[in-house]
Design a protein that fits this description.
- About 15% of the residues lie in helices and about 45% in strands.
- The protein is mainly β.
- It folds into 2 domains: about 55 residues, no CATH class; about 170 residues, Jelly Rolls, CATH 2.60.120.
- It starts with a helix and ends with a strand.
- Strands 1, 3, 7, 10, 11, 13 and 14 form a 7-stranded antiparallel sheet that branches. A 3-stranded antiparallel sheet has the order 2-4-6. It has a two-stranded antiparallel ribbon with strand order 5-8.
Length: about 240
């Protein structure tokens, strides 16, 4: 009986070693490859305007929810916006210019980080050469978990007006359990855009989480047969 017990313990140790090695490989694989969404394959009006971007986002398995009623999330072109990946950027359109707006982008799986660029603002130059300036809205970007709770810090910009170009700025959000990105904007009845003109939206899928214990229910005997055991767990420390 002692010999059988020793063999059983050895079988469990070998099984646990193989399992731990597999889990270690999964853990070392870290996060997935970043996915970049630049909106440029959508045919937007060359003279300026927007087209609905929900079908395009769906090709990345991103869904759009909680959109302000009457609004659309679209790929846009505008002479006052210079996206880093020309010609299109993401924004909201379709409603009166005085409305605060909000929408949520839901990712196909948990992500470890989200990065995007708020495109460069350019002053509008009238036909007679007059610089009429450019204005941008208040906006805030918030990472959310599966329960709709905020993950980490938010990023934001304030309402402004300028007669000079406003350089593009890149923002990042990161944390555990991110499944969505909410964008809130308010132009205060002043700015020419409803929310941040976003380009190069990049999300990094989270890596696989390695299990922390191995549950043993069967042991393979030397005869090739299996014997059932009362389930018990072997802690895994990596």
């Amino acid at each position: 009986m002692k010999n059988f017990s020793e063999k059983m313990q050895l079988s469990i140790q070998v099984a646990a070693l193989v399992f731990v090695s597999t889990c270690s490989l999964l853990a070392q694989s870290g996060t997935g490859n970043p996915v970049v969404v630049n909106f440029d394959s959508l045919p937007t009006p060359a003279g300026g305007g927007c087209v609905d971007a929900t079908s395009y986002l769906a090709t990345y398995s991103i869904t759009v929810t909680n959109i302000t009623p009457g609004a659309f999330v679209g790929a846009c072109q505008n002479a006052e916006i210079a996206p880093p990946s020309a010609p299109n950027y993401l924004n909201v359109y379709g409603i009166a210019n005085l409305h605060p707006v909000s929408f949520t982008l839901n990712f196909p799986q948990t992500v470890s980080s989200i990065t995007f660029t708020r495109s460069e603002y350019l002053p509008y130059i009238a036909a007679d050469g007059t610089n009429e300036g450019v204005s941008g809205p208040n906006w805030t970007a918030t990472a959310l978990d599966a329960q709709g709770q905020q993950v980490g810090n938010t990023v934001s910009e304030s309402l402004f007006g300028s007669f000079s170009p406003v350089p593009a700025a890149t923002y990042s959000l990161s944390g555990k359990g991110i499944t969505a990105l909410r964008i809130d904007g308010n132009n205060g009845g002043f700015a020419g855009f409803l929310t941040a003109p976003i380009d190069n939206l990049t999300f990094t899928p989270s890596g696989l989480a390695a299990p922390t214990n191995l549950q043993v229910t069967q042991v393979l005997l030397d005869s090739g047969n299996q014997t059932d055991l009362p389930p018990f767990s072997v802690p895994i420390i990596m």
